[in-house]
Amino acid sequence: MGAPHVALFPFPDHGHVTPMLQLALHLASRGAYVTFINAELGHQQLPSFTEYLNQTANLKYAHLSVGISALEGPLTLDVVVSDSSGLGNVESSSLPVLHRSLESQSSALEKLLTDLNGAQNWPSFSCLISDAFMPWTASVAQKLQVSWMVFWTPSATRFYLSTKALGHKEMNTELQKLANITIGLSPESTDVFDLSRLRNPHRRQLLMARVEGTKMADVILLNTFDALEEEAVKELAKDFPIRSLGPLCFGTGLKASKANEESLSWLDRQAPHSILYISFGSKAMLQGRPLEQLAFGIESSNMPFLWVLRSGGEGLPEGFVERTEARSKIMKWVPQKQVLEHRAIGAFFTHCGWNSVLEAVVEGVPMICWPTFGDQPTNKLVIEQKWRIGRGIQGGEVDAENIRQVIQDVVGNAEFRQRGSLLSRSAKSALGQGGTSDQNFKFLMQELAVREHHVASC
Ligand code: UDP
Question: Which CDD domains did the record assign (predicted)?
Fold first, then answer.
């Protein structure tokens, strides 16, 4: 059987494109021919990677250059966090418009795949792997008569809770029961899952469509490893053809461009484990009271810090920058994976996006958790209660003194770092020779090869 040719199609958002890119690199390093197709918005977010990608002989980059239609203003997926609860207002985002626009590109995707099939000296595609956010891609795979696999980018725990709780009439009660009994989590309220907050019918419908879509997939790929989310993975495996392949951020050699390395040279000059790294990912934007209280909390912790503020510092309390500049660096963007790998990092103040969480797990960095929306509250619970490598800012009124206290608790907790080191070892060995994710990759390569054989003999 020859090497399979797989098309990968990520949802065009930074937190989705990056792990799909990591998946592409892992598959290519295992001998698959990979075509990475990026929609316009995703393409705009990855300019520094496109050149790099084309350097791998069996990995090609293709750009689905259909613009975002039906948009009235510039598209932004930013989630503004400005009320005192510290949670973001997702309803205000452009997500529904983006979904509609992407779905309207179905025939363009089909045409691109057909054209690419004829143009390359590679075997024909035998499989389309697309993000679970785009269940409509199943029909594209069907028309092209290739296998369809789904890549679920959030955690397995989130997937499990969504599959079980969403369709349930008594969703809140069901969620609480599932979390307690099956996963072993004790949430103070079901709200922390942000699944029970899906009052907006459109958001609820989108999540339902995603979950329903996975039922059509030949295989569901997860960015986790079996030991990390043991219970959720076991439960899911009873009903779904899943493969845990993560943590995909490990072992690809994917690096950010040189232009971003100022933060790293600043870290080189700092003492080991001395720096608090603060980042809320690529979408959450803190404003107003949450931003102000966070700044005061960081300042009174007296820790030196590296803070990613995509607004560049706008909205910070007066004099904050001047008072802290001797022990701080504020930047709009940093190469986060390399930052977390750096020996100077002592703790990570995070919004608990799944990619950020996995990057911290791989490096064994303790976390201070301030989830803002979506799957992040679930991730926070797992960090606090299952892995016990961090603590969260408690809900309700966001308060500087509370923030200072949690920072100091996490930074001074040697057990968090010890458990973090063990988890880091376990994460790295999952993808090492004979590890669970390595094995799952081998199974996946066999499955792809069988499909390739089937396509070739048709
Ligand atoms: N990231 C980065 N530099 C930054 C901030 C974020 O490289 O300054 C990356 C981070 O490493 C992660 C991704 O952006 O891979 C954020 O994804 P995550 O799932 O954590 O959160 P989201 O952005 O989707 O909310």
Answer: GT1_Gtf-like (cd03784)
